[in-house]
Amino acid sequence: MESVSVNKFRDNLKNFVEKIIFDHTPLKVTRRSGEDFVVISADDWAREQETLHVLQSTNLMKQIAASASTHTQNNGYTPTKEQLNEIAGL
């Protein structure tokens, strides 16, 4: 993760924000006196929150593990041709 001083961040705010949004790379901003902070895009923040939600949900993690197991054993659910066509049409 790239790191810049708060002064450099402030002086180049527009450029840093554009890079953060378009490259999806977080930026650590350091301060001489106080806590550092990280800037990320709103889309990346939402993705991180969704990931945390899944990881913290026991039921979802069990479903993922069961799905991975059936996939590995090649005996998972097989959709019908009509279901595949419907999925592909989305």
* Class from helix and strand fractions: alpha+beta
- Global outline: elongated
Sketch the major β-sheet.
3 strands, mixed
What is the number of helical segments per DSSP (H or I, 4+ residues)? Answer: 5
Low-confidence spans: none
Amount of helix: 55-70%
Oligomeric grouping of the chains = single chain
Spatial strand order of the main sheet:
1-2-3
CATH topology name of the domain at 2-41, in short, is: YefM-like fold
- Give the integer mean of the pLDDT values: 93
Q: Briefly, what is this?
A:
Helix content is 61%, strand content 12%. With 90 residues, it is of the alpha+beta class.
Walk me through what this model shows.
The structure is a single chain. By secondary structure, the protein is of the alpha+beta class. The protein has a domain at 2-41: 3-Layer(aba) Sandwich (YefM-like fold), CATH 3.40.1620. 61% of the residues lie in helices and 12% in strands. It has helices at 6-11, 13-23, 42-56, 58-72, 81-88; strands at residues 2-5, 27-30, 37-39. Strands 1-2-3 form a 3-stranded mixed sheet. A hairpin with a 6-residue loop joins β2 and β3 (37-39).
Set out the fold topology.
Layout: E1 2-5, H1 6-11, H2 13-23, E2 27-30, E3 37-39, H3 42-56, H4 58-72, H5 81-88
Parallel strand pairs: 1-2
Antiparallel strand pairs: 2-3
List keywords for this structure.
90 residues, alpha+beta, YefM-like fold, 5 helices, 12% strand
